[in-house]
Design goal:
Number of helices: 18
Oligomer: single chain
Shape: elongated
Radius of gyration: 26 Å
Strand order of the largest sheet: 1-9-18-17-16-15-14-13-10-11-12
């Protein structure tokens, strides 16, 4: 599913209005009617108090349509106009007049903190104050109104986007945004729903089709793609009857140091469980017995006693993963640098491999094209520098990706894979995966896919999806707190099977 910018969404509206020869007012009616239908289906006429807060732009116009339709169907509705400026959009004014014609009570005007209504825990609040076009800080009393709504603990539904969120930067103040229980968004999801600083403002997301022009939507690339089952299933490469282990590639995983051999056990097991034909672990001598015992299916090559001091490849692998538990001693750094000078095979770099690149940026020029980097947040900061917010972080990663022709995976609740200007936002995974070794498993999965012949971008996107899906399956059985990294490995096979089960809902929130 594509992710559009706010500008692209406005263009889609305009294109639809022109191509279908309808008015913007008719499109607003269509969109808001969809939200009403969703509400009516779930409420079934329940007499709960519904408070609708409408801004004075088109988002407020949506709220007025919802209010009118709820009133017409006998719901207990109070409508409030949040008068934060003198400007009124044309469609807002038209729907304001239409609501006044049928409502027993006219909308209540709010112009300051003196007009805030009393809200109860049992009430429903519909937030239609600001839409995706918000481009300036809120006036102080509107921030106070949002705080008042949040403090009520009423059930809150936001129309299209929680009010107070910008579409392209972090909010001015963390408590100046509606904390929505659900956001019903139009046509396509918004990037803000999936980033750490802004995704916290909505618990659930529902995307409703409002009939925007399909040709326009299909022709526009968008700023990103939300990765669900439908996006990864076409990437899957089926296994054939007359294949053999050589058909599915040979990956070499390089890493480990004294006390950190477990990371290599996890990565190697994950690679094999993901389907690679052959896997070799290149580790220090101290990990030999551990690897041979824990992963008897793998081959093991050893180096110096306690750390990697020299990397000589005796075979030609299909792909290499490096960095898990590697350490950053001088001997290891030198070995890593020499390895990058010689290596031409597809490469995944994780953990201490990324830390070494951050300390020695001269090594970056030796990365093979489309090398996949899998940093956690602190490793990413060492690599690209500090950022002011999530949007700035994305721009810095895009620039880094272009400079070094690499794919960067920003690990998190909705892991984002970035290659040049395109974002791939993963929609699997859960908080139980915030556990030691989870990243080592991801590296093993991606390296395995790369070795099997998936191209680098497919291996990254598909690998992240499988990793998250495995985590979801593990959490279903064990609960978030009970999940360990090894549990992810045990559910990789089932995650493949899940690809061919019934279609999953789109999207889900983190």
């Amino acid at each position: 599913m594509k992710i559009f910018s706010s500008q692209q969404m406005r263009m889609a509206d305009e294109f639809t209005i022109t191509s279908e020869k309808i008015t913007s007012l008719e499109l607003m009616e269509r969109a808001a009617t969809q939200i009403f239908a969703l509400l009516h289906h779930r409420l079934q006429g329940a007499p709960i108090p519904i408070h609708i807060f409408c801004g004075i732009g088109n988002n407020g116009g949506d709220g007025l349509v919802i209010s009118r339709l709820l009133v017409e169907h006998g719901y207990n509705v109070k409508t409030y106009i949040v008068n934060f400026s003198e400007y009124r959009s044309k469609d807002f004014l038209s729907n304001y007049d239409r609501l006044k014609e049928i409502a027993k009570e006219w909308p209540i005007q709010i112009k300051s903190e003196d007009g805030f209504p009393e809200l109860q825990y049992e009430d429903m609040v519909i937030d239609a104050i600001f839409g995706i076009g918000l481009n300036r800080p809120l006036v102080p009393w509107v921030v106070s109104l949002i705080k008042h709504i949040n403090a009520s603990r009423s059930y809150k539904l936001s129309v299209d986007i929680p009010s107070g969120l910008y579409s392209d930067k972090a909010p001015d103040t963390t408590d100046g945004v509606i904390f929505a229980d659900v956001t019903v968004t139009f046509q396509l999801p918004k990037l803000v729903f999936f980033l750490p600083q802004t995704g916290i403002y909505t618990q659930d997301i529902e995307v409703i089709d409002i009939g925007l022009d399909r040709n326009f939507l299909n022709q526009q690339q968008g700023i990103g793609v939300l990765i669900n089952k439908n996006e990864v299933k076409p990437m899957y490469r089926p296994r054939h009857k007359f294949s053999h282990k050589g058909t599915y590639g040979h990956c070499i995983l390089i890493g480990g140091s004294y006390g950190k051999i477990g990371s290599m056990v996890l990565a190697t097991k994950a690679a094999l469980r993901t389907g690679v034909g052959l896997a070799t672990a290149h580790i220090p001598e101290c990990g030999y017995d551990i690897l041979q015992t824990a992963v008897p299916e793998a081959m093991v090559v050893t180096d110096d006693d306690d750390e990697i001091a020299e990397i000589n490849l005796d075979s030609k692998p299909s792909a290499i993963g490096i960095g898990m538990g590697l350490g950053t001693s001088e001997k290891t750094i030198k070995a890593f640098g020499e390895f990058l000078k010689e290596n031409k095979f597809p490469l995944v770099v994780d953990a201490d491999g990324i830390n070494i690149l951050a300390k020695h940026p001269i090594y970056l020029k030796n990365l093979p094209e489309k090398t996949i980097l899998t940093p956690h947040p602190k490793e990413l900061e060492r690599l690209i520098g500090k950022w002011k917010d999530d949007f700035d972080k994305i721009e810095k990663v895009k620039a880094f990706s272009k400079q070094y022709d690499c794919i960067i995976i920003i690990k998190g609740a909705n892991t984002v894979t970035i290659y040049f200007d395109q974002l791939y936002v993963n929609n699997t995974g859960n908080p139980g995966m915030a556990t030691a070794g989870s990243g080592d498993v991801l590296t093993g999965i991606i390296t395995s896919l790369l070795a099997q012949g998936y191209n680098a971008l497919q291996a990254a996107i598909f690998g992240v999806y499988l990793h998250g899906s495995s985590g979801d399956l593990a959490a279903q059985k064990l609960g978030f707190e009970g999940v360990m990294a090894s549990d992810l490995i045990n559910t990789i096979g089932k995650a493949f099977l899940e690809l061919f089960k019934t279609q999953d809902p789109v999207p889900k929130s983190s």
